[in-house]
Amino acid sequence: MKSRWLIWPALAAVAIPAWAQAPAGSEFQVNTHTTGYQGAPSVASDGSGNFIVVWHAADQDGSSYGIRGRRYTSAGAPQSGGPGGINTYTTGNQLRPRVASDANGNFVVVWESSGQDGSGNGVFGQRYDASGVAQGGEFRVNAFTAGDQAAPAVASDASGGFVVVWMSDGQDGSSYGVRYRRYDAAGVAQGPGQAVNTYTTGDQFYPSVAMDASGNVVVVWRGAGAGDSDGVFAQRLDASGGPLGSEFRINSYTTGLQAGPSVASDASGNFVVVWNGNGQGDDAGLFGRRFDATGAPLGAEFLVNTYTTQTQIGVAVTSDANGNFVVVWQDNSGEDGSQYGIFGQRFDAAGARLGGEFRINSYTTSAQFGPDVTASPDGDFVVVWGGDGQDGDSSGVFGQRYGDLIFEDGFESADLSRWSSTAADTADLIVSGAAGQGGTIRGLEAFVNDTNALYVEDDTPVAESRYRARLYVDPNGFDPGEADSHFRTRIFIAQDQSSLRVITLVLKRQGGAYSIEGRVRLVDGTRADTGFLPITDGSHLFEFDWIRASAPGANNGSFTLWIDGTVASTLTALNNDANTVDFARMGAMSVKTAASGTLFFDQFESRRLRYIGPE
């Protein structure tokens, strides 16, 4: 899995806020079958931001409720193939699904099923590969079958090993308790399961679970425990299931009930727990507390929601690899103008708010409820929820993406399949090991031996008014045709829907010396240029940030070019509001006679807001 979590020291003077995401596209409907009730969605993303949504649906599997799923790319496009219907046992109800994904997109779904284990509800699961193909059959998680086993939750490590937790009635000797079972990446159970809670008086129920990059786990739940008869408690476990310390209470404020906990962990094992309940500052709100990887509190319990009228419930949390986190919830006050709505709040890794509380659902008629949220390692995130009446019949499942990632090249997969199209002469444009740069094992070769353009094209951008891109380029001795007085070749072009060049990077060689120039189209058809900036004949990391002017005559557009992590040129006060970025090309373009040689490209990535830096 590629890592994009490092920040260059050279970026110290660049003010780019953490998690500066905006809505990426519009609110979207997940379910295509709209008859009856669709609800209780859960969502999980892989290391590249592709995501899977699961939910329970009425009368679609032939017998009451069943489990459905749908996969999406990181750009929000539905993927073909499974899973579709997930449960193979369809008698009675299959409810409350939860899903977890590994870094490569393999995923596991768990749910509760009535009567299937012979006594009340049981917990079942199904594994899938990254293409949505079922791996093996449906399996029962709980070995103990007396009474009810319900409300499962699941977490996966990067390699596909996973843990399932659930509440079990009567198994610990006193009403409900919390159970845990670990599986390897092949779906083989690592033991028969075990109790999580050590305090067994009364109920311990509705657990949530998170796993760090090393396989260590934290489980949280609501219930009775030391110091609180109805609070939120936790237990940390190592990668073998052994306890790390003792069970501990999360909430410090113990008046009234604390319920519905959710937990998220970063890659290093630092974690955050959120819940709804009675607390200081809001007697029916949302609260949170941060902990380091040893389970030590990082500060005091804090209020999540700033709007405190009536009740906020149904809270969920997710974290990126660096510990920045976002909390989402159901607001019951009518804050969105009509019954219930979905809201969120971002926080950085130190627990500081990033901006204010924000509404997630754009459709506000009737009720939106029961949200879930997932984040990619970069911090892009997806929220899903149930909504009444919006799909035309009862309740449907809806989602909203947030983030600034537009596109990544995918060269590590050894092909050009991620790109929308290519312009190539037979084998003149290939992915090869020789072109790998910046620590990767593969990149793009453009072998120039005539005047035909060679490029890959990305059509993902949609009327972008801010466009950032990062790419490695190695001239590798390329000659643009000096012998015929041709010194320049375009190596990157971002264009609008009319195919006008909006942003261009030009490579120049004259007298054997290389340089690079950035160009920006202006409203009157002229351009602003950075001038040619000298580089060596070797691998260089280029990044630029293009911002369209906000309105006609505003003259506040800009263009910044970084070379090898240092700002090389900045153009400001640009009158460039007439064009947006709608597609981009990378390669050898506007090739002249006598041009020859092989250009190397790698690690192309485009975003809307955030400085990208090296892998």
Which key phrases capture this entry?
Methylamine Dehydrogenase, Chain H, 2 domains, 615 residues, mainly beta, Jelly Rolls
Number of domains: 2
Outline the biggest β-sheet. Answer: 8 strands, antiparallel
Q: Percentage of helical residues?
A: under 10%
| Name of the CATH homologous superfamily of the largest domain | YVTN repeat-like/Quinoprotein amine dehydrogenase
What does this entry look like structurally?
It is a single chain. The chain is an all-beta fold. It folds into two domains: 20-403, Methylamine Dehydrogenase, Chain H (7 Propeller); 408-607, Jelly Rolls, CATH 2.60.120.200. 0% of the residues lie in helices and 50% in strands. The chain has no helices and 44 strands. A hairpin with a 5-residue loop joins strand 10 (149-156) and strand 11 (162-169). The N and C termini lie close together (11 Å).
Give me a quick take on this structure:
The chain has no helices and 44 strands. It is mainly beta. Strands 29, 31, 32, 34, 40, 41, 42 and 44 form an eight-stranded antiparallel sheet that branches.
How are the SSEs placed, and which strands pair?
Elements: E1 28-29, E2 38-45, E3 51-58, E4 65-72, E5 84-85, E6 94-101, E7 107-114, E8 121-128, E9 134-140, E10 149-156, E11 162-169, E12 176-183, E13 194-195, E14 204-211, E15 217-225, E16 228-237, E17 243-249, E18 258-265, E19 271-279, E20 282-291, E21 302-303, E22 312-319, E23 325-331, E24 341-347, E25 353-359, E26 368-375, E27 381-388, E28 395-402, E29 405-408, E30 421-423, E31 429-432, E32 443-448, E33 454-458, E34 466-474, E35 488-495, E36 501-510, E37 513-521, E38 527-529, E39 533-535, E40 540-547, E41 557-563, E42 566-574, E43 583-589, E44 597-607
Antiparallel strand pairs: 1-28, 2-3, 3-4, 4-5, 6-7, 7-8, 8-9, 10-11, 11-12, 12-13, 14-15, 15-16, 16-17, 18-19, 19-20, 20-21, 22-23, 23-24, 24-25, 26-27, 27-28, 29-44, 30-33, 31-32, 32-44, 33-43, 34-40, 34-44, 35-36, 35-43, 36-37, 37-38, 37-39, 40-41, 41-42
